[in-house]
Amino acid sequence: MDAFVAEFVGTSLLLAMGSGVVANVVLNHTKGNNSGWIVITTAWALGVFIGVVVAGPYSGAHLNPAVSIALAIAGDFPWADVPSYIFAQLLGAMFGSGIAWLVYKDHFDATEDPGLKFAPFGTAPAIRNLSSNLISEIVGTSVLIIVILYSTEPTIQDGNNTPIGMGSLGALPVAFLVWVIGLALGGTTGYAINPARDLGPRIMHQILPIKGKGSSDWSYSWVPTLGPILGAAIAAGIYLLLGVGGMV
Q: Could you tell me if residue 246 is inside a domain?
C-alpha cells in the first residue's frame, strides 16, 4: 500500500466510524439514539485508533491536513508530499462519511430535523460566535499538534522512506489524545480539529440525495477549515521556537 492509498483508507475508516457514531446517536429509531457525548467522543477516538493502525506503517497515518502541514513546518515531513496527503485525506473523508450515510440511510429518512441530518457530516457550534468558534478550533488543534510533535521522531526511519507522522505515536496514545480533546475542549464547536474531517463530509452533505436535508452551512465552513490550520501553524511555531524541531 502506498502513502496516498494509506491516507485515503485510514481517513475513510476514521470518518465511517465518526460520522457513523453521530448518526447512531442523533438520528431517529437507532439503537444508540440519545446515548450522548461520551459515546460520540469515544467512538471518534477509537475511529482514530482504527485509522492509525491501518495507515501508520505506510504513510505515518496523518489522516488530517493540519498534521501534515504542522510536520512540514517543523521540518519533519517534505512539503512536496503535503498536497497529495491532503487530497487523499479529503477524498477519504468524503468516502467514509458516504459509507456512514449508506448504513444509516433509513434513519436519515426517518428523521425530520435537518440539523440532525447534517450533524453526521459537518461540525456546528453550540453557540454561534465565529471569533470564539475559531479560537476553539485553534486551541483544540494546537493541543493535538503539540503532543504529536513532541511524540514523533524528527527523522525518516523507514527503509522505504516512509514519512513519520501520527503512526509513530502508536495507535492507542493517539486515540486517548483525541478522546481527551473531545471531552475537554469539544463542547463548543464539535472539535473538527481536522479540515478534511469537516470539509469532505460537508461536501457529501451537499451532493448526496438526502431528503429534507436543509443547508450545508457553508457560511460557517471556513471556521473548521482555517482554525485547525492556524492551530497547526501555531503549535509548530512553538515547537521550533523551543529549539526542538528536526530537519527532513
A: no
pLDDT tens digits along 85-139: 999 999 999 999 999 999 999 999 999 999 999 999 999 999 999 999 999 999 9
Rounded to 5 degrees, what are φ and ψ at 147? -70, -40
Instruction: Report the distance separating Cα 121 and Cα 213, nearest Å.
Output: 11
SS (H, E, C) 61-113: CCCCHHHHHHHHHCCCCCHHHHHHHHHHHHHHHHHHHHHHHHHCHHHHHCCCC
Q: How many independent structural domains does the chain possess?
A: 1
Quick one: pLDDT at residue 221?
A: 98
Cell 468558534 -> residue: 133
CATH no. for residue 17?
1.20.1080.10
Other CB atoms within 10 Å distance of the CB of residue 125: 19
